[in-house]
Amino acid sequence: MKTAFIGGGNMAEAIISRAVHLPSFDPKSIIVSDPVAEKRAHLISTYSIQCVESNTEAIENADLVFLAIKPQHFENVATALSGLFRNDQTVVSIMAGVTIQNLRVNLNHSKLVRVMPNTPAQVAQGASVWTSTKEVDSSVLTEISILLDAIGYQVRVDSEDLIDAATAISGSGPAYIFKMIEVLTEAAEELGIPPEIAKHLVDQTFFGSSFLVKESTVSASSLRQMVTSKGGTTEKALEILDQRGFDSIIKSAAIAAYKKSKELGGSDVLNS
Fold it and tell me: Which domains does the chain have, with CATH numbers?
């Protein structure tokens, strides 16, 4: 399957790095357009794919076209590409907040897929939520599913609103985790733990805890209770989190991300 990527950033590269190992996505059949010469050179040397500067050149012979750009750049890209897509081409957007209706109107095209991946896709541990228009061929949907499987967990949904919700949870979620890792590492150093040891302790704690949640047959809540001894250190730490409104902060952050996703797509948002 001939595949084009408009934009060769981190998420595009994460997908490409797995696609080149799949039967339907031979490196010679992948082309990327990116304005940065250094990025094009990197992708060519690393994955043996084609790279060009022109978006119109990239989509010319493609069966599948990924829009892997920032949503703020969509208007300019759409203006240049509107009306150029063939009826047999499928456009896959991985832009946060940009709705299928927005894609349909601005690209003048109906075979559309909207995906919300996340950055752990770079190590094949991503989480992708996606949906499509009814015009997309079933064979293409199968290939997209295979490709998303290659970068982690994937689930197809019927409601596009779930894409915006997923943007706030799994799309933006890694940043919440990274922030917690940053702060806990700082706390470790303030407690006198050498920086290198602090980094490894915190990184492994998050990795191990995530792996335990995934492999366990009990809920995260139950696992938390198991490690929280009555009158112990963990209980004391959790008391501080509760006092400072930790639960409310996390939920408020997710809701704010959801609203922003809706805003980027020009949709109605939740009442404040």
Answer: 3-158 (3.40.50.720), 173-265 (1.10.3730.10)
